[in-house]
Design a protein that fits this description.
The structure is a single chain. The protein contains no helices and 45 strands. Strands 27, 28, 29, 30, 31, 32, 33, 34, 35 and 36 form a ten-stranded mixed sheet that branches. Strands 18, 19, 20, 21, 22, 23, 24, 25 and 26 form a nine-stranded mixed sheet that branches.
């Protein structure tokens, strides 16, 4: 997902902006007070640092241990939590925030071609966080584009709907109504030399919050993850460390997984304005770990942990989370397919795959072994596309699949999903043979000066020519005539045959007065003759 500073021109499905970190900000009014004391002596602690984890705002306590955090600060929108100002699409519900009272909110739904199919919200609302199910009334198993405008900010993102529209317990209803949700929660962090750092969750940016700090020879470092669980390779793992003993620009932490117990080392970067606070992102991969790229290898239901070796006091602090693979979806471009001149599109959505391509296996009743087809990344994150052509003769390479021809065939597409590990078979697609259509330019002909034009349409013919038989009562053996293709989207073939009262020869059929001329095309897909007749009279 990406924010723009002004309204952009609407993009097509191939240029959809996918989920990511926003670079916007929103003002927050802060008025927090309190007193910080020693938990044992109840004496005030002066010089303690009090900061807000979600805001770029901090202060120190006075001689009486008192502190005041006040004014307007800027909120950093780096959290993936749905309860902030960053639009987040989770479980078919859209969560977003409104920075100012009276700000106009517009929400529209488009199909992949850019056609607007629903205008759900267009109203001025109060400041706060909101949720709505923009796809409640949409058909399932589709991919939509959702456009959200809040004030002068616009977000356009793809919303694949591959499950039932019902929201989880406590979630948004199916009626696409706009609902206001609870205020954003932040965390107060208090640290002082010789004391353990304390964190306290708050539900308001106003009020009194007192703290008791326990003495410590060193400040115990606290390491944490942004979320309790993660899914797919699109959303990164955000690690935060708070240790007021540290002053350097970076601090190393070890990240391990069930799949990679050796793990990687990641240098967390100091967060400007926050004492002893460090953070960075680690990305998931189902291929391999890479310290330089901050990749940790995972598989479905892996436990991912981060370890920090605290020097003062000497101990190791750790935190863990779980990672789950996102089940892929496999979709052929439609059904049934007719003829051999139109390919079958294939689309796979798998956000666990970050490579530039993936492979599916395609087979038919005629070719029960099949072959691998490479799909290339295109469009949004996790989207891969490719195509397969059909042939009545045989499979060829990695793009042409043999089909039965004479009867209907069943095409299957198999994708080996690694996370979770399973074989996903696309809904069986049907290929049907189409009987050719033939017609003559007239029902009756006169004399030998003219000729008969033969038209044939058959999308099962991949060649550039087609052969028909032309007979008459005078010459029942007849001749063969070659028709040549004239179309590309639809396979049209045209040829001509002249008349003669002598013996038949190539391009001419022998006729007598009142003769019946018969043209026969033997279709092999399905196996069935197609005939047309005309009468010939002498001039």
């Amino acid at each position: 997902m990406k924010f723009y500073s002004s309204h952009p021109i609407f993009v097509t499905a191939s240029a959809v902006v996918t989920a990511g970190i926003l670079c916007a900000s929103a003002g927050q009014s802060v008025n927090l007070t309190g007193i910080v004391k020693d938990s044992s002596t109840q004496q005030a602690i002066s010089g303690a640092t009090v900061s807000l984890k979600g805001l770029s705002l901090s202060t120190t306590t006075d001689a009486n241990g008192g502190y005041l955090l006040a004014g307007n600060s800027i909120r950093s929108l780096k959290s993936s939590s749905p309860f902030n100002y960053s639009p987040v699409f989770q479980n078919n519900a859209l969560f977003f925030g409104v920075a100012n009272n009276g700000e106009r909110v517009r929400l529209e739904v488009f199909d992949p071609s850019g056609r607007r199919i629903a205008a759900l919200v267009d109203e001025k609302v109060s400041q706060g966080s909101y949720r709505i199910n923009p796809l409640a009334a949409m058909p399932i198993d589709k991919i939509y584009l959702v456009k959200l405008q809040t004030g002068d900010r616009t977000a356009i993102f793809k919303a694949p709907l591959v499950q039932d529209h019902a929201a989880p317990p406590g979630g948004i209803s199916r009626n696409s109504s706009l609902a206001k949700v609870s205020a954003v929660t932040d965390t107060l962090v208090v640290s002082a030399a010789g004391y353990k750092t304390v964190q306290k969750a708050i539900s308001s940016y106003a009020g009194v919050n007192d703290f008791l700090l326990a003495a410590n020879s060193g400040h115990r470092g606290i390491i944490s993850f942004e979320n309790g669980s993660y899914q797919s390779c699109i959303v990164p793992l955000v690690i935060t460390l708070v240790d007021s003993d540290l002053v350097g620009p970076t601090v190393p932490v070890k990240v391990k997984s069930t799949t990679d117990p050796a793990g990687i080392t990641v240098p967390l970067k100091k967060i400007p304005g926050l004492v002893g606070a460090y953070s960075d992102s680690v990305f998931f991969s189902i291929v391999k770990s890479d310290s330089a790229k901050k990749l940790i290898e995972v598989r479905d239901q892996d436990v991912v942990a981060a370890y920090y070796a605290d020097a003062s006091p000497p101990q190791t602090d750790s935190v863990s989370t779980t990672w789950a693979g996102q089940p892929a979806t496999v979709q052929p471009g439609g059904s049934p397919f007719l003829g051999v001149i139109t390919p079958m599109p294939i689309h796979v959505w798998d956000p666990d795959v970050t490579d530039s391509s993936l492979t599916v296996w395609v087979k038919s009743k005629k070719d029960t072994v099949g072959f691998a087809v490479k799909l290339l990344a295109a469009g949004g994150a996790g989207d891969f596309f490719g195509q397969v052509w059909f042939s009545l003769k045989g499979s060829s390479g990695d793009s042409v699949l043999a089909v039965m021809g004479a009867v209907a065939d069943t095409i299957s597409i198999v994708y080996h999903d690694l996370t979770p590990r399973q074989d996903i078979v696309a809904g069986y697609t049907i290929w049907l043979p189409v009987l050719g259509i033939m017609f003559l330019d007239s029902a009756a002909y006169h004399g030998i000066a003219g000729s008969m034009t033969i038209n044939l349409s058959d999308n099962d013919i991949a060649d550039s020519t087609a052969v028909v038989s032309v007979t008459s009562k005078k010459d029942p053996a007849g001749i063969k005539d070659t028709l040549r293709v004239t179309g590309t989207t639809i396979r049209n073939f045209i040829g001509t045959v002249g008349f003669t009262t002598g013996a038949s020869r190539p391009g001419f059929i022998s006729v007598a007065d009142g003769d019946t001329v018969k043209v026969t095309y033997m279709d092999d897909s399905p196996v069935q003759p197609v005939t047309q007749t005309a009468v010939w009279h002498s001039q």
